[in-house]
């Protein structure tokens, strides 16, 4: 049971007890049959109604509540000014209350809708020296998953100021990282230790702030589902290297950044006819081909390069092919190197 539901059950019990207490002190209920039971039922209904309203308002932030309250106040203020303007002074008394009711409902609704559609900068124009959030804190939250922490490139991007924001690491991600570090597999243990080293590196960076978030969703079984739900609740950007997690997050309207896709986009673009220096590291699949790699990891298939294994040659780019794993380059050794 989550702490929130514990509080709800406690509140419901207090409402039931309050309903019973009221039934025992009100004169009109003291001598009534089953007065205590009726009071408990009324208390239960009142508490259940508030809990239902609380559940419906899930995801309704404090800023949204303050905005709607402010919009409702402005709408009622406009309705009050119209009411006292004398426009409906000559209306019949049995019609005036209906006009007043329509005014307050209409302008109250319009005020709340306009407040919800506005942003915090609009409020700063109305209230010049009041801000609803501290300006020295970053607005964007960066939620990291286990794969990004182990990968470590996020630390380089943050130190190079390509990415700025407040780093959020959920506690259930730390638990998953600890399980990897305690694994019997030596490779997994090394990956887990690297993840903790990257977190320590981020925490030592004085230019950013790293927070451990205690939020959890016990009803969700997998870590990926918890990450997507937490990112949606916090309105945070989710950073991952997991292709499937990025797709699931996109389907649920969660902003997700896949570092592998960024790496592919940042690779240098080669055009046909361009000459590159490439080291042939092994033979290709077809006869006469050699395989080499550019500094960014792009694989190059070099025609007539089989005899040049372990040598660095000049090759002319013939074409490039986009594959699921990235860009594949086809090249051919220049004639002077092929002699």
Core attributes:
single chain, 339 residues, alpha/beta, Rossmann fold, OB fold (Dihydrolipoamide Acetyltransferase, E2P), 3 domains, five-stranded parallel sheet, five-stranded mixed barrel, 14 helices, elongated
Q: What's the SSE blueprint?
A:
Blueprint: H1 3-25, H2 27-30, H3 35-56, H4 62-83, H5 93-117, H6 120-126, E1 141-144, H7 146-151, H8 153-159, E2 166-170, H9 171-181, H10 186-204, E3 209-213, H11 223-234, E4 237-240, H12 243-251, E5 256-258, H13 259-265, E6 275-283, E7 290-293, E8 299-303, E9 312-323, E10 326-333, H14 335-338
Number of domains: 3
SSE run:
HHHHHHEHHEHHEHEHEHEEEEEH
What's the total helix number? 14
What does the average pLDDT come to? 79
Give the neighbour order of strands across the main sheet. 3-2-1-4-5
Largest sheet: 5 strands, parallel
Per DSSP, what share of the residues sits in E-state strands of 2 or more residues?
Answer: 15-25%
Give a structural overview.
It is a single chain. The chain is of the alpha/beta class and 339 residues long. The chain folds into three domains: 124 residues, no CATH class; 124 residues, 5'-nuclease (Rossmann fold), CATH 3.40.50.1010; 64 residues, OB fold (Dihydrolipoamide Acetyltransferase, E2P), CATH 2.40.50. It is 53% helix and 17% strand. It is built from 14 helices and ten strands. The protein has a five-stranded parallel β-sheet. A five-stranded mixed barrel has the order 6-7-8-10-9. Helix 1 runs antiparallel to helix 3. The N and C termini lie far apart (76 Å). About 4% of the residues have low confidence.
């Amino acid at each position: 049971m989550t702490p929130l539901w514990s509080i709800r059950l406690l509140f419901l019990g207090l409402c039931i007890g309050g309903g019973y207490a009221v039934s025992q002190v009100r004169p009109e209920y003291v001598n009534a049959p089953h007065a205590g039971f009726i009071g408990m039922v009324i208390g239960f209904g009142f508490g259940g109604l508030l809990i239902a309203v609380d559940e419906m308002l899930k995801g309704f932030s404090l800023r949204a509540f303050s905005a709607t309250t402010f919009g409702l106040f402005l709408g009622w203020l406009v309705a009050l000014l119209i009411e006292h303007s004398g426009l409906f002074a000559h209306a019949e008394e049995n019609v005036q209350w209906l006009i007043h009711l329509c005014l307050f409902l209409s302008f109250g609704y319009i005020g709340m809708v306009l407040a919800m559609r506005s942003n915090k900068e609009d409020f700063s124009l109305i209230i010049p020296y009041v801000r609803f959030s501290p300006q020295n804190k970053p607005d964007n939250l960066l939620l990291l998953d286990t794969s990004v922490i182990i990968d470590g490139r996020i630390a380089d991007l943050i130190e190079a100021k390509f990415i700025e924001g407040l780093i959020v690491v959920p506690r259930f991600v730390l638990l998953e990282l600890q399980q990897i570090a305690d694994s019997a597999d030596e490779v997994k243990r090394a990956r887990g230790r690297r993840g903790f080293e990257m977190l320590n590196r981020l925490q030592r960076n004085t230019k950013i702030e790293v927070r451990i978030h205690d939020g959890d969703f016990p009803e969700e079984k997998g870590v990926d589902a918890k990450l997507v739900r937490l990112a949606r609740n916090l309105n945070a950007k989710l950073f991952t290297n997991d292709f499937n997690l990025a797709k699931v997050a996109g389907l649920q309207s969660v902003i997700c950044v896949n570092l592998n896709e960024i790496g592919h986009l940042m690779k240098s673009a080669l055009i046909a006819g361009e000459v590159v220096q490439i080291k042939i590291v092994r033979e290709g699949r077809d006869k006469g081909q050699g395989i080499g790699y550019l500094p960014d990891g792009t694989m190059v298939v070099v025609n007539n390069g089989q005899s040049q294994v372990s040598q660095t040659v000049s090759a002319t780019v013939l074409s490039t092919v986009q594959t699921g794993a990235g860009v594949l380059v086809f090249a051919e050794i220049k004639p002077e190197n092929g002699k």
